[in-house]
Amino acid sequence: MPKRVAVITTVYRYLTHAQHEADRILVGYPHGGAWHRPDLKIVSLYVDQKPEGDLGGSRAREFGFTVYPTIGEALRCGGDKLAVDAIMIIGEHGHYPKNEKGQILYPRYDWFQQCVDVFEKDERSVPVFNDKNLSYSFEKATRMVAASKRLGFPMLAGSSVPVTWRLPDIELPLGSEIEDALMVGEGGSDAMDYHALEGMQCMVERRKGGETGVRAVQLLEGDEVWKAGEEGRWSKELLTAALSRSDTPLGLTVKDGRTQDLVHNGELPKLAKNPWGYFIEYRDGLKATLLMLDGAIQDFNFAARVKSLGLRSTQFLLTPEPNVTYSACLVGKAEEMFVTGKAPYPVERTLIVSGILESCLTSRVQGHKRLETPEINVRYEAPRESQHCRA
Amino acid sequence: MGFHRSFMPISRREFIAGTAAAPLLLEAQKVPARPKLAAVCTICFRMSHAQHIVDRFLDGYGWNSTHHHPPMDLVALYVNQIGKDDLSRERAARHPGMKMYPTIAEALTQGGSKLAVDGVVLVGEHGHYPQNEKGQTKYPRYEFFQQIVKVFRDSGRSVPVFSDKHLSWNWDWAKEMYDTARSMGFAFMAGSSLPVTWRTPSLEMPADARVREAMCVCYGGVDSYDFHGLETIQCMVERRRGGEVGVKWVQAYRGENFWKAYEQNVWPRELAEAALCRSHTLTPSRPGFNDIFPSLEDMRRLVKDPVAYRYEHEDGVKATMLLMNGLVKDFNFAATLEGRREPFSTQMYLPMPDGRTTQANFFSPLVNNMEKMFLTGRATYPVERTLLTTGLTAAGVESLHRNQARYETPHLAIRYQPSQESTFWRT
Lengths: 391, 427
What we know:
The structure holds two protein chains of two kinds. Chain A is of the alpha/beta class.
């Protein structure tokens, strides 16, 4: 018997997260060199917004499931008891208000709470996959993770960046002594910065002693980012290493095809006119930096200096539209949890990144000041086995 | 001072591949500490092969966590066609260490009377050259190569040569190029970036694998990307037990013949499907779906002009290269191996600057392999691979030209052993 899945989403239009993630359960996806057809069946769907182009209804007709007007009904399939074996919450896209920090107030927490209410009333809980970060609010995210611990249901969340292909296919050995880490990306705040931070987190969490939480963060903008580089707050050597993996330098490369040493040819400040620097001080002393360099590159690259290994760098390959095969890597992980009842990697990774992102954006609205973050007291062990796509 | 050798070393593989003829050795081969190079190109515009390759020598490229500058100097450039969009003059102006010369001989001698470089890069791709009746563009790689070896002969000295893509559109000329390099005893390397680029997943064909069937599903045109598809297959199957032993025959299928062959399992359908499962660019066969596996009917609708080259090696191993424009935009490999139930498959990943990236970084591992040859005087992988794929490309074109009849290829009885080490990009 296939496991019964409820999909709870904001919008189900072409190339939304809901479409490409839920569709993989309906029509299969490329996995390990075969077209994998999961032993899962979507039985119910809740869609919050149905603008023109909504595909939820037509999918329901074609694949034999029901669109319900509320989350509770979707989880109970119109009956009076929880009637699914797994839940996918895909709260991305759609029109939702923004707060003063520029965060889109996606209702992931509220929806998760509605699921938890059903679990409590019906005295049964099932695994929940939550796409992207848990919530714009670290406090809410913390409550979500606490609920899953309290009720004992498996929970997985996050971005596809940690699980996609890597160029080169590297993993930092568990217990690495990481001396410095840097991620470079683009695409703006509250969408792509989250992905970049989670890409960096899945690498640094493998350091000696495991993850111990974040002591302080700071977000700088514009010239302050370059100045911080001059002062050694982020490493030019690491930025060079990360950019050595980029396939998308802009500027002169677009103009006439030439290769560029962006860190040393003087072009970087001309291209990245409004860089953002996210500075993260972990409790164990590790410092890590995310540079969002819109205008300079268009991909996501990581570099670290590791004791006795030296420089390590890789690109997190975000494969092109429309296939976005990286999302197949993520759905594979959700499916694994639905089938085995065990999350392949800790939801605390997503929790800590939800906290880092919110705190960085708070730093920004508070005049880019350094913020102590005692609340980001998130400790966890990285998975022993590599979880990214490599087979 | 440079590292001097009294003779051009012959690797085990070259020895095995070679005939009894002793290399005609000219003056002692020298491998200087910092080699000087000449590039001989058809044309140089934005996103041309010459631009990708020349720029990597001049401006460096991202490699192993740094911006790598090759430890050698490109000092001379010959460009056959200077178009309106030419970039070579801008490059020469910005890099005064590199001078442009009006002839190949002058480039190789740096305007003097004797060979004055330690390595030559031949890039005969793009530019306006006539096509023959079979649709092959007559890129002057052979002609350029002849001019290069004339300088070698006149100077009594030869140096390593890299030749981009297949050796020539003309098999006899390609064979002559190969024979010349062997008889003169200089290191010679050629081919596509497909064998050396990233793979998703990052897999190598196991050494001594018992390969039964191999397949590449890719895209592009005849006498163009077909060569890349063939190199994709060959860099994998050459690692099979016994090494490469050559190809007996080639047959092309096009249009309706292709679909009939597909339906009749002339090539194993499950291998084509396994290869498609490695693609990152599968055209959605239904509107509203972003990644959905196509039926054969879907493929018929999406692919207007499919082409297959199917061929058999001397040891019975069969291989098929499918050009499926409209269905994929990447190079996907699959093979059946004895003792393994599931197909062995991967994608040779090209970060293609057709909107997906801004920079064709698959030229980086190609240039890196050239550098190794220029530094050591030894090819990092056997040119026999490219000799064979050159012959296969020409044979595929020939079969198409002969109404898709099977074309016997006794001339492709090319035997060689692969390099022990993997040479694809994985660091």
